[in-house]
Task: structure prediction
Amino acid sequence: MFNLPWVRILFLGLSCRSCSAPNCPKMEHWTWSCGWRYDKELRVSIEERKVKSIMFIPEELTRTSRKRLLIWHISRIGFASIIWFPGPAILHPVQYKPPVRTEVKMAQLTKKSFLKHSSMKLPYIGLGTNEITTEEMETALNTALDAGYRHFDTAYRYNNEADIGRSLKKIFESGKIKREELFIVTKLPHHGNRRGDVEYFLKKSLEALQLDYVDLYLVHSPMGFKRPDDIAQEVPNFTELELDMETDLVDLWKGMEAQVDAGRAKYIGISKFNSKQIQRILDNCRIRPVNLQMEMQIYLQEKELVSFCQDNDITVTAFSPFGSPGIRPLVKTLSDAPAPLEDPVIKDIANKYNKQPSQIILRFLVECGVGIIPKSSNPVRIQQNIDVFDFELTKEDFERIRALDRGEDGRVFGKVFMGNSANHPEYPFPK
Result:
């Protein structure tokens, strides 16, 4: 027969398995007091109603027993509850199985799909604009828009924000697209990594882009450099600047938060940070970072860092998805590895799907749950780089690419590329 004391254990409420906190923000940690995993079917109700507890009432109880239990529960918890009639399975925890759900297949993603985030809508694929020349910029942007791109990435250090601004002004004036339909990203330069410099550099970027705000503003690197004597001069190569060994990332982040408060940036994030640096920001921030931009390609897959970010509601954007073949010869650990676009596994899979090797790599990264910003000014490649939503890798092919990971040995933008930066206290990679 029904055992009331045992049932009380069931509706003592929800708590976090990891920290025992009743209001833990990581919903996936929640569990029943009796040890059952939190059922995702109730997530919407719990988040919207901010319930304090779940009330279980087995269906086989008499009406009188149900009423008594309901009164007892409300007297202890209050009305901020969900009443659930789960049926007899609730009396047999060992037999309980959550309902089977049909997962959304990756192939159902489209060019208009956004990375998973609680508030920001960041398109999966954007156009990287570094090294696109002044003469090429307008054609590249128009080609990208026609192909379906709505995400555009630049940076103060790229020295091309003015080119983008002039092109966007013409595009907006033509009525081809509205500003609010685009997601535009730019970045704080390395020699601006101080709280007091953030506003100056973002205003300079907005002036060049001819915009009132950017959708996402990133700290380009955790490593700070000293400002040149003439701060308004053309952006110097960061390898020519003197390291600022007193970079304070927590204080710098306060300057970033101020840009959101002022309406100059809708969201803020970081680039090239490691998990410890990100955690330091999370532990001290008022406005959380929403995005990490980092090197990620088939030889450097950063599984742990991606997982860390996703657990903390931080999207990930991969730059250099094709491994920056131009500088690979300088990286000794990659001397025996083919360029990603020439990898035999990638080429074999590309032949199987009748796709370009670049499309297989980009599709793989999409299926890893990250965004990508491949850079190109070639109209054909711009189109190809976004045409990756009409197929899905099989589990076997996905795992074949997973097996190509070389870990830290696969990094291109490491000590060789960074030069003296590796001596900075905030250098984010293993030395």
Q: What stands out?
A: DSSP finds 14 helices and twelve strands in the chain. Residues 1-52, 79-104 have pLDDT under 50 and may be disordered.
